[in-house]
Amino acid sequence: MANPNIYLTFLLLLVFLLTKSAHSGQKVANHYVQDACSVTIYHALCVHSLASFSSTAKTSPSKWARAGVSVTIAETKNVAHYLMKVKNYREMRGRYKIPLSDCIECFQNAIDQLHGSLGVLRGLNARNFYAQIGDVTTWLSATLTDQVTCLDGFENPTGKQAKMLRNRVLRSSYFTSNALALVNKLATTGLESVEDP
Fold it and tell me: Are 176 and 72 in contact (CB under 8 A)?
C-alpha cells in the first residue's frame, strides 16, 4: 500500500501549482487592462470597468475601444433609467424640473450616439477606417457634450437628490471620456489594429 503522506504531498503540490498558474494568468490579464487604460484620464475607473475584457481584448486597440464604448453604453443607460425614475416619482421639483427634462433628452441622444459608435467600431474596415474613426470620435464628443449640458442644469446643486443626480451624470461622463481616449488610441495605431473586428 502506498504511503498516505506521498498522496498528501502530491495533492498539496498540485494545489500550489494550480494556484500559482491562476495567479500568473491574472497578472497577465491585469497587464493588458493597465496598458489599455494608460491613455485614459480616469485610469482607476477604466481598469475597474474593463478588467473583465482582458482575456479577449489582450493587446487589440479595436477590441479595447469596443469594450470602452460598451461599458459606457451600460453606464449611460443606467443613468437614463435613473433620470426617468426621478422624473416618474416626481422627486425633482422647482428649479430642477426643466433641467431634469433636458437631461433625459440629452441622455436619450447620448445612448443613440453610443450605439452608433459601437456599430461603426464593429464594422471597421481598411477602406473607410479614418472616416469611420472620425464619425465615432464625433459621436463620442457629442455624447460628452450632452452629459455636460445635463450637468449645467445642476450646477451648485442644493438638496440630496440634486447632488446625487449630478454625481451620477458626472460619473457617466468619465466613462465617455475613457471610451473617447481608447478610440483615439485606436486611431493612432491605425489600420493594423483592425485585423480582428
Answer: yes
**Number of residues that this document lists for the chain:** 197
pLDDT score, position 197 = 44
3-class state of residue 51 by DSSP: helix
Q: pTM, whole model, 2 decimals?
A: 0.83
Contact of 143 with 113, CB cutoff 8 Å:
yes
Contact, 180 vs 48, CB < 8 A? no
Residue 143 is inside which H or E element, if any? helix 129-152
pLDDT score of 25 more than 50:
no
Nearest Cα residue to 179 out of 128, 114, 125: 114
Q: What tens digit of pLDDT does each residue of 39-95 get?
A: 999 999 999 999 999 999 999 999 999 999 999 999 999 999 999 999 998 777 788
The DSSP call for residue 3 is -
Number of Cβ within 10 Å of residue 126's Cβ equals 11
Which position has the grid cell 493588458? 32
H or E segment at 93?
none
Q: Contact 76/170 with Cβ under 8 angstroms? A: no
> What φ, ψ does residue 159 adopt, rounded to 5°?
95, 145
Nearest to 143 by CA among 169, 168, 163, 113: 113
- Asked whether residue 34 carries a pLDDT value surpassing 90, the answer given is yes
Report yes or no: 17 and 154 within 8 Å, Cβ to Cβ: no
